[in-house]
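Q: Predict the bound structure with zinc ion.
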Amino acid sequence: MVLDRSNLLASLNEDVFDHILEGLRVRDLSSLSSTCTWLREACMPFVFNYVHICVREPIQIEHAPFFLPASAKPYVRSLALLDECWDQQCGGRPRPKYLYTDDFLLCGAYPGAALAERLQELPRCRSVKMHKNNDLKHGLSWDTLLSVLSVPHLRKFELRFQCFCPALRPGEELSVDSLAPLTAFRYKMEYPRDIWFFPSEVAALEAVLGKLCDTLEELVLPSEPAPMSTLATLSWPRLREFVVRGSPSTWGALPAPLVLLFSAMRGLRAISFKINPLDNALPPAVWPRGFVHSFPWPELERLMVSYPDPSDELWDHLPPTLRALSLRCWPHVSSQRRFAFLGRMHPPRFGLVPTSSDLLSILRHCEALSLDHLEIEYRVDDEDEALLRYVVTTFPHLTSLAVLRYRRNPPIPEECGPCIRRHSLRLLDSVVSNCT
Ligand SMILES: [Zn+2]
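A: Predicted complex:
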């Protein structure tokens, strides 16, 4: 008797069978799908659920068979396009003629109309990520961006390490008729880096966000080109998570404090201010002392503020809904050391890292909160033990606590980190023991 294993699998509850397939690695799915026609069809949605394509030349976009096999297209739900165009091989240095573009700022590997056609051929695709893996000033043209953002079935768009319309071509205008009803728009640039942005980048973001604000639930922006004044004038009825990353380089002339600029985002559940200071300039207070305003985010659950300012009035107004608070450096000091070792940034400026006293001062304004998660990063001073004791006694419901603690000057080298962690744990343990 021959055992028909495919029929045995077919007798499984459909949800159970799908759950098994979901747990398999892609190479295992590929092996399984090679066994018979029935299993191949069953595996296809899982094999091609996420597709990553390296784009080196425009013909990969223009010629449909070079983009994806036709048999895979019905199953793609999430697509990532990595820009590795040959024009980047010269590192952006002037050369007599680029292969696919006349302006190195604008990638020539993504002809807009052809890219829109390819995405239209993926009827279940909801998420597109476009990225590159270097810090070259090289990005996507308005034509390319508009083609992607106009695909009606798209819901999530991410652009990583590529500039958002760094230049306009002659005669090009930033006009937008309609865009896909995106729920997530994530634009992330590499950090640390030299601080720069392009005027057309700001204008293009203004044009796009003005159309997307009604549907967005998640918004991630770099601080430098973020059109702050425009963000303040739009309504954001569905926005739940907002992240701003970068430096305060362009915030010297902010039209209003951050608490006012983002006050139209009333439904926010999560806010992250991931700001890395420049030279000796700390990020501005979210709510400057003396500024009269009402708290704009009554349902806030998660808050991250980098290089927090003890004089910030934000700490006096946090709502009882808040469950997770992160007061840290961005990037973490340990990451800054690593970047400095690689020559990608200056060594961390320890003088700007908040002290135990700073964080104790801030947390004393938060004693009414019932936090589940707390993250603190600071330099040790005379209030170190008081801070740790305060954390343990004031927030007894914590389910996670991250403490990144740096010994007073001279800063300890990275290899001594575990000693610090052991010391902190002993101290916390003794504090907990004394409290119970
Ligand atoms: Zn390119």
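A: The first strand starts at residue 50 and ends at 55.
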